[in-house]
Amino acid sequence: MKLRLALVLGFSALGTLQAQNLPIGGHFIPGTTGLNATAEVPPGFYVRDFNLFYRADRVAGLPLAAQAVFFGQAPRFIWVSPGKFAGAVWVAHVTVPLIYKELKTPLGSKHQAGLGDIQIEPLLLLWHRANVSLGAGYALFVPSGQFTAATALRRLTSPGKGFWSHMFVLGGDWRCGDAKAWVISLTGHFEIAGAQAQTRATPGDNFTVEGGISRRIRSGLDAGIMFYDQHQFTVDRGIHAAPERAHVSGLGPEIRFVWPSRRTALSFSFATEFGARAHTEGRFMLLSLTRRF
Fold this sequence. Notes:
The protein is mainly beta. The chain has helices spanning 2-18, 152-157, and strands at residues 44-60, 67-85, 88-95, 98-105, 108-115, 118-128, 132-142, 165-176, 182-193, 201-202, 206-218, 221-232, 237-238, 247-259, 264-277, 279-292.
């Protein structure tokens, strides 16, 4: 009798999961912008390689215990203009993510790997003044990654999201203190999602704010504390759409090394998440290497 009850409850939980108990979620991964994001850099062509590892032992909103693992390796190809447009430096970039996702539950597990959804940011304008720098941009996420909604586990571990989305970015840095050694950073990302063809659902729109404070320890070395807060402010729409709006916050250290003579920069950040609602809650590590050619 107990076994039968456990099976009934288990399949009921799986059914709830399959009915999209969790919001679909947007494309932008919080915590990836980093501190001092609008700093002035020389014109030219850059490649930045992101390596992100994320693990969550709690998925707020799922009716059963679950463990999620995510790894992304994403080269970003960046062009910085030699001249100015509207008084600002014009930056454009394309990010091509390679993604691994794994989800384990008491009722089964699934992992998938492949090309994710490509991010194209054709316009990012940076204005630099004595103590302040500002940035404003637009990005498009292209559904280039494989996505399938055949089962709940396959949907949640698909490398792609299965929809287009638009993102508007606004942020800045304020340099203060002796020799402008302190930097206060704040950036906002507003993401508007399109319809997901396979599920006939439209994900809710998301707003993510990132920022923090850092200090130059010595020439070429900065360290600080970063934070992020991602909030879904409209619910998903469509058949079996989740009634909840996702939310998660994160906090942790960030350190950055710069070698001007080698045209190279290396940054590392680590964050612990809290306050999750209808979202995974875990820890992530981000290592990025930037090279100017």
